[in-house]
Amino acid sequence: FSPDNMGLLDPATSDGRVIFFLPWEKMTIAGTTDSPTDVTSHPIPTEEDINFILNEVRNYLSVDVEVRRGDVLAAWSGIRPLVTDPSSKDTQSISRNHVVSISQSGLVTIAGGKWTTYRAMAQDAVDAAIRAHGLKAGSSKTIGLQLQGAEDWSPTLYIRLVQDYGLESEVAQHLASTYGDKAFEVAKIAQVTGKRWPIVGKRLVSEFPYIEAEVVYGVKEYARTAVDIISRRTRLAFLNVQAAEEAPPRIVEIMGKELNWSEQKRKEELEAAKKFLYFEMGYKVKSDQLADSSEISLLPSDIERYKKRFHMFDKEKKGFITILDVQRVLESISVQIAENTLHDILNEVDLNKNGQVELNEFLQV
């Protein structure tokens, strides 16, 4: 949905909230809503918020492009830390930026803000401490201070990773852009694949460039949970919640070996990862939507009949049927549909875009 190097932002939507539409990790990230919420450590995205974003972004796209609920591969929410400035005359004044406060005892406190302004926040806090306590210090060095991995990075660094280690080009590009010149440390611990190509670099999930070596490297950089790996050290959970579900067993296996986890600890980590994906990354709202039969205009007796038919063709009790099974179903009730048309129909109802038709989707067919 997005050109590679172009984003869109509208600060004045139908109800005044900001909407953005940006290319990210070869996907498109769309947002955002802003509404009051209860404070919790585990905020959960709602179907209402997801539909608001979809409805808004549709206004900016070509009529040829139809954004459907099934195109949403992951959804998440966070809680914005709004703070009240204690020195403000207006006690109701709430800041969307950060606030630096100095107490009578001289304690310097910084609150609010956001990850993307961390350098400015740090500079303001340190400057306040210098002023309040007469500390000796030179000028701030944060502008131009490179992050770890930036020193020897170049746009063509990934080519060396391909040539020197035998990594796939896509994997090498991902490592170079994520770790900078530290990508070589990740490549050094990448396992041999046993294939002619790529020589090293076993993927965690086939369609994404994240490799198993990143789990080992993440542990060296103090990653201690499977959730940390699937959401922050990699971006799997944010890019495709269903694909991310495949990764935790192997991640837990690798981390368990590196950190000497007990069998009980491994089970706990696996369960925590599943729970995180289900609630916080939008799997639940997607599942709830699949289970919603409000859009199906069939009589209860028909629903029961087609449920039986669905289960009859789902011989392996997989919970889904494929296009071949659907063709057999249609033939059995003497309905002839051209294969191209059938593909189009299935594409419309395959809400979770996994090439499989689940019960609710089957009823919609």
From TrEMBL:
It comes from the Eukaryota. The keyword Glycoprotein does not apply. GO terms for biological process: glycerol-3-phosphate metabolic process. This is Glycerol-3-phosphate dehydrogenase, mitochondrial. Keywords: Calcium, FAD, Flavoprotein, Metal-binding, Mitochondrion, Oxidoreductase, Repeat, Transit peptide. It is found in: Mitochondrion. GO terms for cellular component: mitochondrion. Its cofactor is FAD. Pathway: Polyol metabolism; glycerol degradation. Calcium-responsive mitochondrial glycerol-3-phosphate dehydrogenase which seems to be a key component of the pancreatic beta-cell glucose-sensing device. Residues 301-336, 337-365 form the EF-hand domain. Its EC number is 1.1.5.3. One of its GO terms (molecular function) is glycerol-3-phosphate dehydrogenase (quinone) activity. It catalyses: a quinone + sn-glycerol 3-phosphate = dihydroxyacetone phosphate + a quinol. Belongs to the FAD-dependent glycerol-3-phosphate dehydrogenase family. The keyword DNA-binding does not apply. SUPFAM superfamilies: EF-hand, FAD-linked reductases, C-terminal domain.
